[in-house]
Specification:
six-stranded mixed β-sheet; disordered N terminus; alpha/beta; 34% helix; Nucleotidyltransferase, domain 5; globular; single chain
Length: 156
């Protein structure tokens, strides 16, 4: 028997049947700038796995890798029909820039933030992003590092 949420829907499903998701994202560099990658772990709100991915990005800064992780996460959530998405990142800079608490000074990061905002403008899902300590983000970090070492895309 599948447990249900207070709304009567299966855990991780909203009232419209769309997925309520949480994601952990991370960017990593071997050197900064250096060889880089990003990792994303997408789960239902109930903790059931949806998709995991690590992507090799080539030569980039850690901040670029963090933004690429968020963009990958938004793509994945949209592809799986998420109705809501809560993203957890250990990058305080990324979280504060996306939430509008920090100004974006670097043009290349402003461009990436513009891509994030454009992806969110579709209104496909409710979105929030929160900061977590690095130790709570080990799985996404591991995927990013594995992608760098393999110089490829990995995932399920």
């Amino acid at each position: 028997m599948i447990a249900s949420s207070p709304t009567g829907e299966p855990p991780g499903r909203g009232t419209a049947g769309g997925l309520r998701c949480v994601a952990y994202i991370d960017g990593s560099c071997f050197g900064n700038p250096g060889e880089s990658g990003c990792g994303v772990v997408l789960k239902t709100e109930a903790g059931d796995p949806v998709e995991k991915a690590g992507v090799y990005l080539g030569h980039a800064t850690n901040n670029v890798a963090e933004y690429q992780g968020l963009l990958l996460c938004l793509e994945m959530a949209g592809r799986h029909g998420a109705e809501s998405l809560t993203v957890y990142s250990d990058s305080e800079l990324l979280v504060r820039q996306v939430n509008g608490r920090y100004r974006v000074k670097k043009p290349h990061l402003a461009e990436l933030l513009g891509q994030v905002r454009a992806a969110l403008a579709s209104g496909r899902f409710r979105f929030q992003i929160r900061h977590v300590p690095r130790e709570q983000n080990n799985e996404a970090d591991g995927l990013a590092r594995q992608a760098i070492r393999s110089r490829s895309r990995i995932g399920s």
